[in-house]
Amino acid sequence: MQRADFNRDGTVGADETYVAFKTKRLGFDLPSMHAKLSVAEHLQQFYQTGFTGLSRDEGVFLFAQGRAVFISSGTWDAGSLIAIAKGKFEVGIMNFPHPASNDPEYGSLALGPVYDPAGAGFPFAVTRFRPENTELAKAFLQYLSSLNGNSQLNGIIGWIPSVSGAQMPDALAKFAPVNQGMFGTTVIDGLGGKTTVKWQQCFSLFQTDPSYTIDRFIKEFTQFYIDQGLSDWQEQQRDWRRAILNNDRFLAGLRGQLFAAGESRGDDPRWITYRSYVAGRQVFPEVGHEGQRRMVENGPERPVGPYEFLPDAIEHLKQQFSPSKQ
Q1: End of a domain among 141, 158, 176?
Q2: String of b and e for 208-225 (b: at least 16 CB within 10 Å)?
Q3: Same domain flag for 186 and 318
Q4: 20 to 30 A Cα–Cα from 106, which one of 16, 214, 257, 297?
Q5: pLDDT tens digits, 276-309
Q6: Alpha-carbon distance 83 to 96, whole Å?
Q7: Do 10 and 40 have their domain in common?
Q8: Domain limits for position 38
Q9: Do 41 and 90 lie in a common domain?
């Protein structure tokens, strides 16, 4: 964030990562980014031969057979994995291991756990095409979003409640979100197109071929990423522009209904809704896109930050999550 959060939103997107690499603000020679590859190089010696080619189902099959000690997954798999292993072995849940602050190699880079941004797994609403059941459906959904209702719902489906204070299923306690820590940043393979394919090819080689060293990975991927990234980003933006046409159709239909309804006041809720859609779906995205385009094509126009508070915050996190307080 200190090097590449050009729009100052607290995280680093794929576009900012590319610009930072292109302007040499980021690179795999940076200790924190080089450590990512070093950790991967250390861990992959413990994995099965051919692990990078496994599909999701093949990974679950190996785990169910007792041929895999650890499987990376989430709440959506917990119930089924526990059921598959019943009578064979006990399934435990743990977080990913994290370097302690006193680790001789990675301790200075261990700023604390990665923060889990809050989010709901599925939204729900009442369709307008069944008006005779609207009140009943609304009451049912209100119950599902209540304290007791949300606890029961998530107990049945095995998910984490999104309502504050709702009881979490016992089996999912280890999946509780981390509400203190550092934002995850730096999306290297997010531009799509050839750069994403190149990342997958190089990283798979790095994980499976002992002769494909860190230095070789850095040399082959970095130059390709810098040379091809702008073209991939521009194609990504053309896709975005095509999707914008759907908003035009939607807004034209909404506008036609309002005109057909005759005169109305400026504070009419329907016009307020329309103006909100125009701002949220057309105006603000265009403004943000133009700033993004100028940054990617011309480089950042202002310094990163302000992050004057960050050194104190990092020190606080190191003390908070030191080995003595685990």
Answers
A1: 176
A2: eeeebeeeebbebbbebb
A3: yes
A4: 16
A5: 888 888 888 888 888 888 888 877 766 665 555 5
A6: 22
A7: no
A8: 30-94
A9: yes
